[in-house]
Amino acid sequence: MYKTIFNKETKLTKSILKHKELTAEWTDKEPTGIKSVWNEELNDWEETASQSEIDLKQRDNALLLTLEVYQTYKFDGNAYYDLIQAKIALAVNTGNLIISIAFQLESIIKPYMDKVKSGDWATTNYLMQNLTDDNTIIQDWIDEIKLHINNYHSNNYKK
Questions:
Q1: At a CB cut-off of 8 Å and minimum separation 6, what does 47 contact?
Q2: Cα–Cα distance for residue pair 22/60, rounded to 1 Å
Q3: pLDDT of residue 52
Q4: What CA–CA distance (Å, rounded) separates 133 from 138?
Q5: In the chain, which end has fewer C-beta atoms inside a 10 angstrom radius, N or C?
């Protein structure tokens, strides 16, 4: 079920897809604020926009829905980056990884982790496919990261 509500006076658009409501305030060209809430009672909403107003906002609403997905990817990417950094720090602190290898590892994975932090899991998954290192310790870390990124990509992106 897809429904759009647009109020001309407040320039407020609400898009409802299944049980998810996205609200955005608009300037002439782009959203200025985005809010997402779970709404169980969709039947209580009433359409206040004409069909032409709905049609004009459909593309923008699809953009909002996609933006929300990418905000989730970015949030997850930052959390995964923090996890990897914590694992590296713990390995160094416990003597399981020497600091020089940790620095090498961080320099190798940095461009890929930067992409993950920005929410680009699919791009990172593609770019890391052939990433290898001669040092087996570094390669083990790379393999673990590649596996996680591949699993995230498989579980969160539509085919």
A1: 3, 4, 5, 54
A2: 11
A3: 58
A4: 7
A5: C
Task: Output the CA torsion sign for 114, 118, 119, 122.
Answer: negative
Q: What is the pLDDT of residues 39-76, one digit of tens each?
A: 434 333 334 455 555 555 666 677 777 788 888 999 99
| Cα–Cα distance for residue pair 137/133, rounded to 1 Å | 9
Residues 125 and 148 in one domain: yes
Question: What is the pLDDT at residue 78?
Answer: 95
The total of structural domains in the chain comes to 2
d(CA 44, CA 55): 22
* Phi/psi at 128 (5° precision): -85, -5
Residue 35: predicted pLDDT: 42
Query: In this structure, what token pair is assigned to residue 115?
Result: 């992409």
- Summarize the confidence of residues 100-109 as an average pLDDT: 97
Domain ends where: 45, 70, 95? 70
> Residue for token digits 């930052």?
78
